Amino acid sequence: MSHQYYLSKDTMWKATISCDATYDGVFFYAVKTTGIFCRPSCKSRIPNDENVSFFGSADEAQKAGYRPCKRCRPDLCVSKYDPLTFILEDTICLIKNNYIQNLSLDDIASNVGVSRFHLNRIFKERIGCTPRMYLEKFRVNKAKELLLTTQFNSTQIGYQIGYQSISSFYSAFKRNTGFSPNQFRTLHVRNCSNQK
């Protein structure tokens, strides 16, 4: 039997309007007017109490015809849901899988379902840099790998890792490593031969 049935409607309503995370996983609430169900901790707008139904599980809410909220993701089987963690993971995954594309901050933000301002802010708080800086670092690391493992020249590598212009590739590489791509390759080749 679900814990939800041991709670009064009043207790669940109070937990809902106070966004009380201690009730996450204990019950879910659904809003008739939107057709969406949420965790008690969801930060979405407080609904009118006459439009709210309570459920003991996400399955019950879905069987009743409600869709999971995109903000609090009540369909995920985690007891404590931190939406920022999932936004960051989705952003990093998107960057790693699409770094050769011409990705703008708007593209990244709309793909993960948040505003560019919000994404920039949480990325800086949690990762220490913006998504664009993260993309640049990821591309430069790929370039370093290609410089040391292939015979491609710097121009070929720049285009292969998603840069539209070679000057922007050179600038990004120098900003992140302190060297031009050719200096980096020469230095590492020399270091390897000195160690033999």
UniProtKB/TrEMBL annotation:
It comes from the Bacteria. Keywords: Activator, DNA-binding, Methyltransferase, Transcription, Transcription regulation, Transferase. SUPFAM superfamilies: Ada DNA repair protein, N-terminal domain (N-Ada 10), Homeodomain-like. Pfam families: Ada_Zn_binding, HTH_18. Residues 89-187 form the HTH araC/xylS-type domain. Its cofactor is Zn(2+). This is Bifunctional transcriptional activator/DNA repair enzyme AdaA. The lineage of its organism: Bacteria, Bacillati, Bacillota, Bacilli, Bacillales.
